[in-house]
Fold:
Amino acid sequence: MSIPSKQECFYVLEMIESHLIDFSYTHPWAEQIIMGLDAAPPWLGDLAIKKYCGDQSKSIREYIFSEPFVAGPGDMEKFHVACLWLRYERRELSWATFLRLAGEHLDAANADWDCETSYHYLNVYEDSYFCRESEEQTKRDYLADHNLRPWIEMAKKKFEPFRKMRRANKAN
Structure:
């Protein structure tokens, strides 16, 4: 494994900030990269040893926002929502919590996906008293309103190396 590009690190940062990954994922990933290097950059060393997500975010931000400056990938708010979706799929988040967090993030991002869609489906789901049928219907409707599927696939692809490294680390 080689040092990831700044472009790739924007995605790593988003996975950290969405809480899709934490130190149990970043430590083995960073350690694997470091093992192949003569000298590790400080930000990568921080990802290999620091546990607090704020410290990890700070370290990776220092790298991606240093010279030479590069523009981040577009539509990162959509990638963030896809990361939240993966947390929902692994049953870490309830459907109501996913909708609330997605709405809050989209509201703060001021993006082309409006936050009102998430809040609307949260209201519908709450009004049904969180019944399973409403969850399934609002999920279908949400996915029809926000084309999240390509972003979910991208999030799965970006997450997979971290998942593999964590599993390998747990097996040892």
Remarks:
- The chain has nine helices and no strands.
- The chain has a mean pLDDT of 95.
- The first helix runs from residue 6 to 17.
